Amino acid sequence: MKCASRSFPAAAMLTAVVAIALSCNSSSASAAADSKHFAWPSSFVVLGDGYPHAGDACRRLGESSATANYLDHTAMLVGCPGPRHSDDARAILDHRRAHVVGEADGVTLISISTEGLSASDDRSGHASMQDTHFSATGTLPCERGAGQTKTMCKFGVVRHGDRSATVVVYWPDGNTRAILFGANGRVLGAAMKAGDRPMPGNTLTQKNAGINLISIGNERYEVEDAVVSGH
């Protein structure tokens, strides 16, 4: 009987441990679901449909009253719903040149450096870009290969007198991609480099919050309307 009586506390303790574990798992799953369906406050200008991949909870952020103090021309600003120790925020902080710069309206603000290219890649990119008289230059989000993490590619844009434009993207490995835009801001096609004839039928484009989401085969680009128009 003594052995039987001692088993009751052990069984009760085991039940409590299992209940706590189930509660923790349920809380984690609930938090993940909440971040996926987060209603972004109007204080933010949200760019794209997920970062680093489409459908992810975090988003690139543009300039607004909530982000003005955190924007930097050498970095990209990303917002993740919830606190800085959330799974979404930690996934970016663990694998990127990133750091938390603030929190606002339930969003953790993360600055990601866009100056992570190696010296050799940087030199080769500038050498190519100097061959063309661009209207403006900068960096934009780019992705190559299914499921690959986004990086930042250098670009140069040539704006023509008829309001059309050509955006030339420079990959870190030295490859290039030219994207042609019409006077109305729509994508007309893409070529391997500036001056080549556009390749028909392999370019898909969607627009979201002033961002052109462009798919060319297994390549992905995000080009803001302001890059094309200049304003």
Report the count of strand segments: 13
Q: Can you give the mean pLDDT?
A: 77
Number of helices: 4
Question: How many distinct domains?
Answer: 2
Strand content: 35-45%
Low-confidence spans: pLDDT under 50, at least 5 residues?
Answer: 24-33, 116-127
**Tell me, what's the shape?**
globular
Cα radius of gyration in angstroms: 23 Å
Keywords: Signal
Signal peptide: 1-31
Q: TL;DR of this structure?
A:
The protein has four helices and 13 strands. The chain is an alpha+beta fold and 231 residues long.
Structural write-up:
With 231 residues, the chain is of the alpha+beta class. The protein folds into 2 domains: 46-113, no CATH class; 119-229, no CATH class. Helices cover 26% and strands 36% of the residues. It is built from 4 helices and 13 strands. An 8-stranded antiparallel β-sheet has the order 10-9-8-7-6-13-12-11. A 5-stranded antiparallel β-sheet has the order 1-2-3-5-4, with helices on one face. Residues 24-33 and 116-127 have low confidence and may be disordered. Residues 1-31 form the signal peptide.
